Amino acid sequence: MQHRPTDEPVRFLGVARAHPVDPAELAGPDPGRVDPTVLGALLDRHGWQRRGGAAGRYARWTLAGTGPGASLLVPESRAFPDSEDLLGEALDALERSGTPAAREVLVALAVPSDEIRWWRDVPRTAADAPSWTAEEHLRAAARRMLLAGALAARGRAGYYGARYRRPAAAALEPVLVQSAPGGRRLTAFVPVDTGRTLAVRLHQALYAVREAIDYRRATGGMDAFDGAVEAGVSHELTEALVALVRGTEGARVGVAWSPAAGVPAECTDGDDPVEFSPGDLDVLRAASARYLHAEPAVFVRVTGTVVRMRRTGTRGEGTVRLHVIAGADVPHLRMTLDEEAYRIAGHAHLVGLPIRVHGRLESRGGFRRLTGASGVVPVQVDEAERDRLLKSLQENLDFFEEACAGGDEP
Asked: Which tens digit of pLDDT belongs to each residue from 356-395?
């Protein structure tokens, strides 16, 4: 059985610019809308230290290594007339600071977000500096893990392949990333209003993976990985963890919940990051292969438009590529039809109608192929949709001309 290569880089569909978004693109937070309690919680989270202040009125916060004059005065509440002025001055000071800790606070204020953090203990080179590739490795592993979380937010499966991939990638577009120099630490800010389910699923799945690995070491069995699917664990997540841990002395992943939104009901606050070591790699790879080969085929009834047809002669069976409209969570699929079904598909294509077909969506190839296709029939659509389909047909006449003339399948 052959599957889509697991080391293929993630490509985010529909994103024209570099992804994730640069935090510098965000507008600064409005002092009139900043909650002093939230600002204090974020300062504490990102390494700032409280150094006293007027009790009940304001607190003084400092950041180690930024000089004796670098401090912020943050009001305890908005109960005093000068509270908004103090907040404005604190935000200006953060923007001028330019430190990663200041930028992370500003990002979290601008877009209330749950923070997913990765740490990699990268071996140092002879020059006592991390490898120049370490940061890219960390970013690539983080992207894959976020995508795995977004897939789990759409539905549970041991192996997704092409299923849900487009909406899952679209769900990552609002995610902001702040990296530290050297490829040792990275933070993703996942907006609460659009991405909390992603953060919750990933948080639960990471703990489930850790428990399944520990169970494997204690008992020798892989059964815990089967039950972990319900928590969001998958082939895609285990492969992301392999990419994160490989080449390190250890790695950690943690989730910190947005102070503005509070802790989700399914989770608890203050959980320690989940740790993984090179000793976990063999178990993770075994779990990845287990998920890859165990995911069953799916029986579906698919509606879609024919976008490509191929057969080697003027008669007999042929291959059809379908753009999926409904019935399967993949954008396209390919199927082999007998002569009669192929003729029906061709006629529907010529008049601009979609077709409906029954079959098994096979995991082989990433759920991109329908086997046992049967019951091919044209589907009636309204005039507006038919005009759109006919226009698409006119723009792609070469596909059908090749089908009529015969030719080899690409």
From this structure: 999 999 988 889 999 999 999 998 877 666 666 556 555 5
Neighbours of 400 (CB within 10 A): 17
What are the CA-CA distances from residue 49 to residues 34, 46, 103, 384 (Å)? 19, 9, 16, 62
Q: Could you tell me which residues come within 8 angstroms of residue 324 by beta carbon, excluding any fewer than 6 positions away?
A: 302, 303, 304, 330, 331, 332, 333
CA distances from 209 to 141, 212, 234, 238, 278 (A): 16, 5, 9, 8, 15
The CA-CA-CA angle for residues 272, 276, 280, to 5°, reads 150
Tokens of 238: 């285990």
CA gap 12, 175 in Å, rounded: 12
Boundaries of every domain in the chain: 23-110, 113-294, 298-405
Identity of the residue numbered 182: G
Instruction: Identify any residues that bridge with 118 across adjacent strands, giving them in sequence order.
Output: 186, 253
Alpha carbon dihedral 219, 225, 231, 235, in 10-degree steps, equals 150
- Would residue 223 be called left, alpha or beta, if left means φ above 0 and alpha means ψ between -120 and 50 degrees? alpha
pTM of the model: 0.79
Distances from the Cα of 286 to the Cαs of 112, 213, 216, 292, in angstroms?
A: 38, 11, 11, 10
Burial of 244 by CB count in 10 Å (0-12 exposed, 13-18 middle, 19+ buried)?
buried
Q: Report the distance separating Cα 249 and Cα 232, nearest Å.
A: 26
Q: What is the pLDDT of residues 272-297, one digit of tens each?
A: 999 999 999 999 999 999 999 999 99
Q: Which CATH architecture has domain 298-405?
A: Beta Barrel (2.40)
